[in-house]
Design brief:
globular; mainly beta; 3 helices; 2 domains; eleven-stranded mixed β-sheet; 612 residues; Jelly Rolls; Neuraminidase
Length: 612
C-alpha cells in the first residue's frame, strides 16, 4: 500500500513538472520576449512604442449637470463611414451600483470628440422581481449596463450598437449571473442619430410581455432583422456574451466562465482567442469549437483585466493589455505570425489622480478594446484602442503601424516646415481634455502647444532620438505666462529613468535639479521665446545648459543612466501614487475634484538633436 502511494505521488510530481513543457509544445499564442514590466513604476520601465498618442475623450466631472456620473468604464470602439464611434457604460458613483446607462461619443479624427449623449438609457426593473438565493426584492430599482461587445457593422454596411441590461439587487449581487434582463441593439446612423431600441436576446425571466422595448423580430426594418440574425449566427460574436447570457444558452459555444473574449484570424483562417488573465485557445471552425480549454498563454503576464488582440495593417499581429497583476501600465506586444509575441512596449504609462471614490474603481489605464474585424479600418494603417482610466475617464490611443521600438535618425522637427497633419507622427503624446497637447498655428508659424488647466493632470510630449551616451538637444519654447503653471524638461533612458531635469516654475525662474535641491540657472518672461541647448555626456554624468545663447552652465546628472533615449516635456511633476502597496479601493473624493485652474500654455517651436 505504501509503495502504491509513493508511485502515485511520484507520478503526480512528474505530471506537474511535465505540464509546462507539454504546454510549451502546444500550438498556442505565447510571449517569447524577455522584457517584463516593473509595477513599481506607472510606466513599468517599458520603452515606448514610437509615435503613440494617448487622447482623453471624456473627463468625469460631478459638477457637469449634463453628465455628472463618475463611474465610467468598459468603452467600445468602431470606425464607420469616416468617423470613430465610442460608447461606454456608466453608473453614478461605483461599479454595478444602479442606476446604469450607456453613453455615446463620435469623432471625425479620433482626437476631437463630441460630448457624451445617452445611447441606452436607464431601465426600470419590474417591481417584485427576485433572484434565486437572494432575499432582495426589486422596488423602484434600475438596471445596470454591462457589455462585452459594443458594435456590429452588418453585411449591408449599417452600424449597430449593442448593450446589456443586468440586474443588481443589493450588495455583492452580480449582473452577470444569467439572471439579467437581456441584450439590446440600436442602429447608429451616419448623422449621429439613433434608431429605436430593440431586444436582441432575452434572459430566461424576460420576454416581449414584461420588457420596455420590442423584440427585434417585430421590427419592419428588414436590415435590422438581418443584422440581428447575423449576430446570432456568429459563434465568435455570441462567445463575447457568455457571462451575461443564460447559462444554458445554446448559441454560446464555450459556456464556461471565461471572460471578455477577443479574437483574430491567422492566415490559414484559424481563430486565436484571448480572454482575461491572457487565457488563450485556437479554433479551426470559426469559434464553434476550440482545440483545448483556454490556458494561460505561456510567457504572458496579465491579471483580471481585458486583453485585446488583432491583426494589424502590416500583416503582423498585436496584443494590447496590462502586463502585470495590476491595471498598469498599458502595453503592446507584436507578433509576426500571430502566435509568437517577441516584444513589450509602452502605450500609456500614466495614472492620473482618481478624483472620485467608488466601489471597485481600480487605478490605471484598463479594460482595453480595439476595433473588431467587421467594424471598420481607420486611415493611415493606424491601430486604435480605447480604455478607461481609473474607471473614471475615457481614453483612446493611436498606435502607428508598423509598431516601432526605436528612432534611428536625429531629430530635426521645425514644426512650421513639417507636412500638415504629420507634425507629431513621431512624437509620443499624453493629452487630457484640460491639458491638450497639439499643433497650434499662430500666423505663419506652427508650434507644439502644451496646455494645462487641470489641477490633477498634465500634458506631456516625448520625442525619441537614437539611443546614445552623448546627445545635444536644442529647442525653443515660449511660455505664455510667468506667474502660473509649471514645465519639466527631462532626458531619460529606455526605462524612463531621468538623468537631468530643467524646470520653468511659476515665478519666471529656470532651474535644474541638483541632487536633493534645485539650482537656479536663469529666468524667462511671458510671451518671449526661450532657446535652450542641452549637451549631455551620460558616461561622465556631466551636462551643460545654455539659455538664449548665453554662457553654458555646467551641471552633474542627479541620476545615472548608461544611455539616453528621449526628451520629455511635461506640465507637471512626477507621479508615484498609486503604487503596488496602495489600498485597493479609494472611498473618498479629492478636494476640489470639480475645479479647473487658470490655463498655462507652453509653445515649442522646434526640437533638434545630435547623438554621438
Amino acid at each position: 500500500m505504501k509503495t502504491t502511494k509513493k508511485i502515485a505521488c511520484w507520478l503526480g510530481a512528474v505530471m506537474l513538472i511535465a505540464a509546462p513543457f507539454a504546454l510549451q509544445a502546444q500550438d498556442t499564442a505565447r510571449y517569447t520576449g524577455t522584457t517584463l514590466s516593473n509595477v513599481d513604476y506607472h510606466h513599468g520601465q517599458l520603452s515606448p512604442a514610437l509615435g503613440v498618442h494617448n487622447i482623453q475623450t471624456m473627463r468625469a466631472n460631478r459638477a457637469d449637470t449634463s453628465n455628472s456620473w463618475t463611474y465610467n468604464h468598459a468603452p467600445m470602439l468602431a470606425y464607420w463611414k469616416g468617423k470613430f464611434y465610442l460608447h461606454y457604460l456608466s453608473d453614478p458613483v461605483g461599479e454595478h451600483v444602479p442606476p446604469g446607462q450607456t453613453w455615446f461619443q463620435q469623432s471625425p479624427d479620433g482626437v476631437n470628440w463630441t460630448n457624451p449623449v445617452p445611447l441606452f438609457p436607464v431601465y426600470k426593473i419590474p417591481d417584485g422581481f427576485t433572484k434565486p438565493g437572494r432575499a432582495d426584492v426589486a422596488k423602484n430599482t434600475y438596471a445596470v449596463m454591462h457589455q462585452r461587445i459594443g458594435f456590429y457593422t452588418s453585411k449591408q454596411n449599417r452600424l449597430f450598437a449593442l448593450g446589456y441590461y443586468g440586474i443588481v439587487l443589493g450588495k455583492k449581487d452580480d449582473p452577470n449571473d444569467g439572471n439579467g434582463i437581456g441584450r439590446v441593439i440600436r442602429e447608429v446612423r451616419a448623422d449621429g442619430s439613433f434608431g429605436p431600441i430593440y431586444f436582441l436576446r432575452y434572459n430566461h425571466n424576460f420576454n416581449e410581455k414584461n420588457t420596455n422595448y420590442p423584440f427585434y423580430t417585430s421590427s419592419k426594418d428588414k436590415g435590422l432583422v438581418a443584422a440581428c440574425k447575423e449576430i446570432l449566427d456568429s459563434p465568435l460574436l455570441m462567445q463575447q456574451m457568455v457571462e451575461e447570457s443564460d447559462r444554458n444558452d445554446p448559441l454560446i459555444p464555450l459556456k464556461k466562465d471565461f471572460k471578455a473574449f477577443s479574437y483574430y484570424r491567422l492566415p490559414d483562417q484559424r481563430v486565436v482567442g484571448f480572454w482575461k488573465y491572457a487565457l488563450t485557445s485556437i479554433s479551426a471552425d470559426g469559434g464553434r469549437t476550440w482545440q483545448y480549454n483556454p490556458v494561460r498563454a505561456p510567457g504572458f503576464v496579465n491579471a483580471n483585466a481585458k486583453i485585446w488582440g488583432q491583426r494589424t495593417a502590416d500583416g503582423r499581429y498585436a496584443t494590447v493589455y496590462n502586463p502585470s497583476e495590476f491595471r498598469w501600465p498599458l502595453a503592446v506586444s507584436v507578433s509576426n505570425d500571430g502566435l509568437r509575441y517577441h516584444n513589450l512596449l509602452l502605450v500609456n504609462g500614466e495614472i492620473t489622480s482618481m478624483r472620485y471614490g467608488g466601489e471597485y474603481k481600480s487605478y490605471g489605464p484598463q479594460y482595453v478594446r480595439g476595433i473588431m474585424e467587421m467594424n471598420g479600418v481607420p486611415p493611415d494603417s493606424v491601430m486604435w484602442v480605447t480604455y478607461s482610466m481609473n474607471k473614471e475617464d475615457i481614453w483612446v490611443s493611436r498606435i502607428p503601424v508598423p509598431v516601432i521600438d526605436k528612432e534611428t535618425g536625429n531629430v530635426n522637427d521645425v514644426f512650421t516646415n513639417l507636412p500638415a497633419g504629420k507634425e507629431l507622427d513621431r512624437w509620443n503624446l499624453y493629452s487630457p481634455l484640460w491639458c491638450r497637447t497639439e499643433i497650434f498655428r499662430q500666423g505663419n508659424e506652427k508650434v507644439l502647444s502644451l496646455h494645462d488647466s487641470d489641477p490633477f493632470d498634465y500634458a506631456k510630449a516625448e520625442r525619441m532620438f537614437p539611443v546614445s551616451s552623448a546627445v545635444v538637444a536644442e529647442f525653443a519654447i515660449t511660455p505664455k505666462q510667468a506667474d502660473n503653471g509649471h514645465l519639466d524638461i527631462e532626458i531619460v533612458d529606455e526605462k524612463g529613468t531621468p538623468c537631468l531635469r530643467l524646470s520653468l516654475d511659476s515665478t519666471g525662474t529656470v532651474y535644474t535639479k541638483a541632487g536633493y535641491r534645485n539650482r537656479s540657472i536663469g529666468t524667462y518672461k511671458a510671451g518671449e521665446k526661450l532657446t535652450v541647448k542641452i549637451e549631455l555626456n551620460a558616461a561622465t554624468r556631466f551636462y551643460t545648459v545654455t539659455l538664449n545663447n548665453g554662457k553654458p552652465v555646467n551641471n552633474i546628472c542627479f541620476a545615472p543612466i548608461a544611455k539616453a533615449q528621449r526628451i520629455v516635456f511635461r506640465t507637471g511633476g512626477v507621479r508615484r501614487f498609486p503604487d503596488a502597496d496602495t489600498p485597493t479601493d479609494q472611498d473618498y473624493d479629492l478636494p476640489g475634484a470639480d475645479s479647473r485652474l487658470k490655463e498655462a500654455v507652453y509653445q515649442i517651436h522646434y526640437l533638434k538633436t545630435q547623438t554621438f
